[in-house]
């Protein structure tokens, strides 16, 4: 039976009738939860954007649960193309800003006037509109670009070894100035959260403001130290957690949207766990979190896991821990990887709480499958399917000969009535998914971003699940398919070595599909 919800943790008003209601059996949520009159944030980033945080910076690395939430400021100032137009600073205001930033760049770390200037800039930027923030960033980028031009001029004017030494010395000086500039902000109260948000803006505007590149890269390098996994704290998130934290959980969820407080209550029930990494200087802001379900067998579809009416699992007989959602929350921390440490830490925690628990797996999306499939020519599709499946495909009258990948994707998303066609759909879909996960690579790494993450952690591709996610998002990403990655603690290092050798670890069921 469900525990009665802790209303003091929610800190939001409820109706009198709901406060008197009692818990009901199974997963049906008490009326007091359903009637909570708190807003459910609705701005949701795309999975591609959120996955990008886990697998490096820049375009082409939009993989893994990353990308973060949308800006709270909304769409104010956006043009039709999604770009923000900067406001025009007056010559006097721009000149004052340049003097302020130059002081922050050049002064000693202990210079109190420069520290006060940094504090004023941080407050001004935080209170500014998106258009004003872009204007401020433009000046920052111009100052950094001017430094870069000075470095280039040093190389032109000098000759031979002396020019190289001059350029090298200038590069070191400029780099030290930028680092000192960033450390000055970090030393301020709330400076670290500001820098995380600031880098998110830098990444967003970097293409339009190339002068930001050096500063953004320096900040990313500093974050690798400041957010070292040894400094992070692992904490559970429960129904008793503060309402502000629960709202962030709902807002940041990137894989399976949390639709209501009742949905959230289900995900934090007694047979579930949720863990997050926090930084000591950002104690109310989860950096990355994972949702865990305890089930009797390896999960084959997400709908069963998210069913609010399903009975609670008996934890005395728990056999499987399923990681069914992993979300990175801070776009400004893109390229700072701590997701692999999170899963390993969580496995250790679960083994302490449940000493007999030995089976750990994910139920993961295949976010890049459809994008890959629809780009295949008829010849490439035939090669991916293999002769045996192509022979079966030739017997299906609803498909023309020489079918392309885009046509195959449309067919896999259809709902045929005949069971024989349904079986063929499943056979071809699972075979293509297995090929995509096990054989398709980019620069020697798995093409799929989620596969790249889990295989890079030492997991193995255990099973392809047909029609595991029948939501619009699941159909759009992977024709409704999902995959289980199996985590065997004693095999993680060996599996990682197999990936390095170009042969990712595969379960028997997946190997048979190839």
TrEMBL record:
Malonyl-CoA decarboxylase N-terminal domain mapped to chain residues: 161-227
Protein name: Malonyl-CoA decarboxylase
Region annotation Disordered: where it falls in the sequence: 1-93
Biased composition (Basic and acidic residues): 69-82
Pfam families found in the cross-reference section: MCD, MCD_N
GO biological process: acetyl-CoA biosynthetic process; fatty acid biosynthetic process; malonyl-CoA catabolic process
Lineage of the organism: Bacteria, Pseudomonadati, Pseudomonadota, Betaproteobacteria, Burkholderiales
Biased composition (Low complexity): 1-46
Signal peptide as annotated in the record: none
Gly residues composition bias: residue spans: 55-68
Molecular functions per Gene Ontology: malonyl-CoA decarboxylase activity
Chain ranges of the Malonyl-CoA decarboxylase C-terminal domain: 230-488
């Amino acid at each position: 039976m469900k525990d009665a919800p802790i209303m003091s943790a929610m800190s939001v008003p409820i109706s009198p009738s709901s406060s008197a209601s009692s818990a009901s059996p199974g997963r049906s949520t008490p009326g007091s939860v359903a009637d909570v009159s708190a807003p459910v944030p609705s701005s949701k980033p795309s999975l591609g954007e959120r996955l990008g945080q886990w697998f490096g910076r820049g375009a082409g690395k939009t993989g893994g649960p990353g990308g973060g939430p949308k800006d709270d400021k909304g769409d104010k100032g956006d043009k039709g193309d999604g770009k923000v137009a900067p406001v025009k600073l007056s010559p006097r205001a721009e000149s004052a800003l340049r003097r302020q930033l130059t002081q922050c760049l050049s002064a000693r770390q202990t210079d109190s006037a420069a520290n006060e200037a940094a504090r004023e800039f941080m407050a001004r930027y935080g209170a500014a509109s998106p258009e004003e923030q872009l204007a401020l960033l433009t000046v920052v980028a111009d100052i950094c670009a001017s430094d870069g031009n000075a470095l280039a001029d040093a190389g032109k004017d000098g000759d031979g070894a002396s020019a190289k030494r001059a350029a090298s010395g200038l590069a070191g000086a400029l780099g030290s100035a930028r680092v000192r500039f960033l450390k000055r902000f970090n030393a301020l109260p709330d400076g670290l959260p500001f820098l995380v948000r600031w880098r998110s803006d830098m990444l967003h505007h970097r293409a339009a403001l190339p002068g930001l590149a050096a500063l953004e890269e320096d900040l990313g390098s500093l974050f690798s130290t400041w957010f070292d996994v040894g400094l992070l704290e692992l904490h559970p998130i429960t129904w008793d957690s503060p309402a502000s934290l629960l709202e962030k959980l709902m807002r940041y969820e990137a894989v399976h949207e949390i639709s209501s407080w009742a949905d959230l209550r289900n995900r934090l029930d007694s047979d579930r766990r949720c863990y997050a990494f926090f930084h000591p200087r950002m104690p109310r802001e989860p950096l990355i979190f994972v949702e865990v379900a305890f089930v009797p067998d390896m999960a084959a579809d997400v709908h069963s896991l998210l069913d609010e009416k399903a009975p609670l699992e008996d934890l005395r007989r728990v056999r499987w821990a399923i990681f069914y959602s992993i979300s990175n929350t801070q776009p400004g921390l893109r390229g700072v990887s701590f997701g692999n440490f999170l899963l390993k830490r969580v496995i250790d925690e679960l083994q302490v709480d449940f000493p007999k628990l030995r089976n750990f797996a994910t139920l993961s999306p295949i976010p890049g499958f459809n994008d890959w499939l629809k780009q295949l020519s008829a010849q490439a599709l035939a090669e991916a399917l293999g002769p045996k499946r192509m022979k079966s495909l030739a017997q299906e009258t609803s498909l023309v000969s020489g079918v392309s990948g885009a046509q195959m994707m449309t067919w896999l998303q259809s709902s045929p009535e005949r069971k024989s066609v349904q079986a063929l759909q499943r056979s071809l879909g699972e075979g293509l998914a297995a090929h995509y996960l096990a054989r398709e690579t980019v620069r020697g790494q798995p093409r799929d971003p989620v596969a790249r993450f889990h295989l890079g952690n030492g997991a193995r591709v255990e099973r392809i699940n047909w029609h595991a996610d029948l939501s619009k998002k699941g159909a759009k990403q992977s024709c409704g398919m999902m995959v289980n990655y199996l985590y065997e603690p004693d095999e993680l290092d060996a599996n990682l070595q197999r990936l390095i050798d170009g042969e990712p670890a595969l379960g028997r069921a997946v190997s048979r599909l190839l």
